[in-house]
User: Fold this.
Amino acid sequence: GNSVTQMEGPVTLSEEAFLTINCTYTATGYPSLFWYVQYPGEGLQLLLKATKADDKGSNKGFEATYRKETTSFHLEKGSVQVSDSAVYFCALLNDYKLSFGAGTTVTVRA
Amino acid sequence: ETGVTQTPRHLVMGMTNKKSLKCEQHLGHNAMYWYKQSAKKPLELMFVYSLEERVENNSVPSRFSPECPNSSHLFLHLHTLQPEDSALYLCASSPSPGLAGGRTDTQYFGPGTRLTVL
Assistant:
């Protein structure tokens, strides 16, 4: 079956620090991989995606590379801001089914 | 209005009430989804509709009844809910559902309805 495992939070950082959130997956076939972000009181927003091995998704300074050999899709940002405080979800899409990780809460302090 | 909208944003109901959640997508998509987000649990897929036909019912209790009158609108009718049904209910849409090995498409989410069952 399909599953996603992401690092447990919460993660607390200072502004301009480097952020990494680990995500690994198990899947059959050739899934697409996503990072969604959920700001307080809001729904899920697509942050970035990658549809095949070695693809790199990027948006708003965030990056993640689809690594088939390590079944990973780690999220990184070089310099976080207070506005990046949110819950981040790694997700896998196989057929039409999205499988989500448990979410990682990130808090950035000024 | 653009994207995926959901109403109401917040709902409080008693266990004997009947209410409905509404989702509307303005993206021209053909597939729509209901998800449940409970505290400390991963998001759970509830229902999938493709071209107004239900293609997935993920073992959801019958007290949740979906309706998709057209490709732009999706409802979730609620009756005799339990307190454990309190959660954030998220609607999503995608260009197509990617059934039968077809192309799989990114799902775009609405802001959710925060439901509290007393």
